[in-house]
Amino acid sequence: MPILEVKNLKKKFDKNQILKGISFDLEEGQAISIIGSSGSGKTTLLRCLNFLETADEGTITVRGEQLFDGKNPVTDPDLLRKMRLHFGLVFQQFNLFPQYTALENVTLAPLINAEANEKAGIIENAKDLLDQMGLSDRMDNYPHQLSGGQQQRVAIARALALKPDILCFDEPTSALDPELTGEVLRVIRNLAEKNTTMIIVTHEMAFARDVADKAIFMDDGAILEMGPADELINNPKEERTRQFLSGVIK
Ligand SMILES: Nc1ncnc2c1ncn2[C@@H]1O[C@H](COP(=O)(O)OP(=O)(O)OP(=O)(O)O)[C@@H](O)[C@H]1O
Ligand SMILES: [Mg+2]
């Protein structure tokens, strides 16, 4: 059974049909990359999957449990919060809390509902995650004391601290100077090697090909082509995918 099954997801903003029926599966331990031109609906798709937007139609099922059905969407805030815990989201603009240290940014959410006897474990886990991100000497720094690449690695640790079933990235390196891109891509590659289940929206085509098992090319709100990542990016079947790739690869 796939860890995630998305069926016929549709979303309109005003009169504009932004998602036109998106369906795909993701297996546990695999990564899927999503590529496509600006405005094709990639961020909207991730936001619907994280329940930050409510899709109009379609279903989202995680580990066999249907979390979302457009016919009868959940509106209860407590239930929504629980549903969101299945997904982690790392944004383009890190979105760290400026008034908290790196360590506090990572522990904040898990500590909110923790019992007293769980607190030490949560802090240990956060330190371990920051260590995995190569930030063991930066735990007490505030976001403004960190480079963009370091901030993004804190944001990744923060997302992992809630132990999501599926970790989603929305162009995690597009806000970074080119020399800081590599360090963030490296930690995501490490996560892939440890079989972290991920959905990665990216404009870095070589990365999309190498890090993911499967790739999706989105065009105008629909999946135009989907397949093994290396095949889709090295040898796309659709003319439109070829055009897109020839535009972005130098
Ligand atoms: N909250 C909103 N209200 C109205 N229109 C929106 C909203 N969010 C997104 N859109 C529109 O939906 C379309 C898809 O946007 P989206 O951000 O999903 O594209 P994208 O593929 O992520 O693009 P990019 O590569 O530039 O990030 C765009 O035309 C955008 O203007
Ligand atoms: Mg986007």
Write structural notes for this entry.
The structure is a single chain. This protein has helices at 42-49, 77-84, 102-112, 119-132, 148-161, 178-193, 205-211, 229-234, 239-248; strands at residues 4-13, 16-26, 31-36, 57-62, 65-69, 87-90, 166-170, 198-201, 214-219, 222-228. It has two domains: 4-86 and 164-248, P-loop containing nucleotide triphosphate hydrolases (Rossmann fold, 3-Layer(aba) Sandwich), CATH 3.40.50.300; 97-163, no CATH class. The strands form two sheets. Strands 6-7-8-3-9-10 form a six-stranded mixed beta sheet, with helices on both faces. It has nine helices and ten strands. It is α/β, with parallel strands linked by helices and 250 residues long. The protein binds adenosine-5'-triphosphate and magnesium ion.
List keywords for this structure.
binds magnesium ion; single chain; 4-stranded antiparallel sheet; alpha/beta; globular; 2 domains; binds adenosine-5'-triphosphate; Rossmann fold; 6-stranded mixed sheet; 250 residues
Chain-wise SSE layout:
Layout: E1 4-13, E2 16-26, E3 31-36, H1 42-49, E4 57-62, E5 65-69, H2 77-84, E6 87-90, H3 102-112, H4 119-132, H5 148-161, E7 166-170, H6 178-193, E8 198-201, H7 205-211, E9 214-219, E10 222-228, H8 229-234, H9 239-248
Parallel strand pairs: 3-8, 3-9, 6-7, 7-8
Antiparallel strand pairs: 1-2, 1-4, 4-5, 9-10
Helix pairs in contact: 3-4, 3-5, 4-5, 5-6
The structure holds adenosine-5'-triphosphate and magnesium ion.
